[in-house]
Write a structure and sequence with these properties.
Helices cover 30% and strands 27% of the residues. The chain is of the alpha/beta class and 475 residues long. Strand 11 (185-193), helix 8 and strand 12 (215-220) form a beta-alpha-beta unit. The model has no long low-confidence stretch (mean pLDDT 93).
């Protein structure tokens, strides 16, 4: 198990690196995160929904992602608590206190999923969540060291030196956990070190003395390795605030309830905005949302709705994915209060359609074909609404001959997450806008994911004490 001293210290990275390292040794490996809280999710082949980080880890293991790898997924829904997904399917909408009352049931689901994986694989790499020393949550902890204790799994504690306080975070964490949990911790790792690691040798020795356990390694900050982000915290580290002269200016609206922003991982030159820009961009993208009506109200309060429509009138392309697609229509209604109690909101009116949210959730993986028939791509749907167009004369794509979404002129709307992760499709869409606007299309090429996972395994193997890793975790 890989746990952290806090959120966003690099647990997912470390777990993914270990997954790839073990796979390269010829072992059958599977990832496991008992409980994940994220609006970045993915639909498995059977229609079950799991966190995106476990999908990346499954890819690193060269196995197909399944719902057993993330049996409990929480999707926060503002003041309404979280939508709870169990074994890939929507189970309940619960407040935090009501969720705690379901601990025994959820723990059984976690055990069952873990046992199924354990029967199939040589090794399971478990990932914790948040900080592992949240002692007020210990009695109801499904995912961190209390679970490692129940399963008798050895653990690695990861700390982020870049944020400061690494001595306090490592030693404080180990002092706060219980004796049983402490017996599971075999070593710790110092992550995101900048500069020459030899400069930290004395600090490493001090930490080992106070922690009474060895340091597995001091791992450098590696921005050059690209992995799918687990949650929106990563956007805070993100992309430039200014457009590049002569290059197509692409902006993504950072909605308060943004979801599945991994759709835009190939658009590395795009920038996130939360207010209108002074100069009209060339492409405006409205991403998915966990609360479409609330985010539509937010767009209007911030002047972004009027700005987007005005920019479109001045020649900008406007693309909407999932919730963003719904926002491009005339109206979004939520009569059953599926996402909020706000009822309804007027859309931007760029597509002649209306959406009604419903309690039934659509989750499915599909193969689609761009409307022109030139590109086939894999995609997935995750939405709780039905969008009705007056006439479907200009679809974005076809799925088994059925039209999907909208594409006409400079407006695109689709429910298909993953469409913009197809290099060929995205390249064609971006080039079309660049030609029309007389600008340079940005590069959207990226190294294949398999190369990124190999680079991540190299990063682990070059900086970890591999003999110690073998002794502590593999014997």
């Amino acid at each position: 198990m890989v746990v952290g001293t806090a959120s966003h210290v690099g647990k997912s990275w470390m777990a993914t690196a270990i997954c790839r390292h073990l796979r390269r040794r010829g072992l059958r490996v599977a990832p496991f995160k008992a409980q994940n809280m994220s609006l970045n999710s993915y639909v498995c082949r059977d229609g079950g929904e799991i966190g995106r980080a476990q999908v990346a880890q499954a890819e690193a293991c060269d196995v197909e992602p399944t719902t057993d790898m993330n049996p409990v997924l929480l999707k926060p829904a503002a003041a309404m608590g979280s939508q709870v997904i169990v074994n890939g399917r929507v189970w309940k909408q619960l407040s935090a206190d009501a969720y705690e009352g379901e601990f025994d049931f959820l723990l059984e689901q976690v055990f069952a999923a873990y046992r199924r994986l354990a029967a199939e694989y040589d090794f399971i790499v478990l990932e914790g969540a948040g900080g592992t020393a949240e002692i007020n949550l210990r009695e109801r902890d499904l995912v961190n060291l209390p679970l490692a204790e129940r399963l008798d799994v050895p653990a690695l504690v990861v700390a982020d030196i870049d944020r400061g306080g690494v001595f306090a975070s490592v030693t404080g964490t180990l002092q706060l956990i219980s004796e049983g949990e402490r017996r599971r911790v075999r070593s710790f790792a110092v992550n995101r070190f900048r500069g020459y690691p030899g400069l930290f040798e004395s600090g490493r020795a001090m930490l080992e003395e106070r922690a009474a356990c060895p340091c597995l390694g001091v791992f450098p900050f590696a921005r050059e390795i690209e992995l799918d982000a687990e949650d929106s915290v990563s956007l805070d580290e993100g992309r430039g605030a200014e457009a590049v002269d002569g290059q197509l200016d692409i902006v993504i609206v950072r909605l308060p309830h943004i979801s599945n922003f991994t759709d835009f991982r190939l658009l590395t030159s795009a920038r996130y905005v939360e207010r209108p820009t002074k100069n009209p961009p060339d492409i405006i993208i409205l991403p998915g949302s966990k609360n479409t009506v609330a985010d539509l109200h937010w767009l209007r309060r911030n002047g972004l709705a009027e700005w987007a429509v005005d920019c479109h009138g001045k020649g900008a392309a406007v693309w909407g994915i999932c919730g963003g697609y719904q926002m491009l229509g005339r109206r979004v209604a939520d009569p059953a209060g599926v996402e909020s109690a706000l009822g309804a909101a007027e859309g931007l009116g760029l597509i002649d359609c209306e959406t009604t949210l419903a309690e039934t959730k659509t989750t499915r993986a599909v193969m689609a074909c761009a409307a022109g028939g030139e590109v086939e791509f894999a995609a997935y749907e995750i939405h709780m609404g039905e969008t009705r167009q007056a006439r479907v004369t200009s679809p974005f794509a076809h799925i088994e001959g059925r039209p999907e979404g909208f594409r006409n002129g400079r407006v695109i709307g689709t429910y298909l997450h993953g469409a913009l992760e197809c290099t060929e499709l995205l390249g064609g869409l971006v080039e079309e806008v660049a030609l029309r606007r007389g600008r340079r299309a940005p590069s959207i090429k990226t190294a294949p994911k398999s190369e990124q996972y190999d680079r991540l395994a190299d990063w682990f193997e070059q900086n970890a004490d591999m003999e110690l890793f073998e002794e502590l975790y593999l014997q």
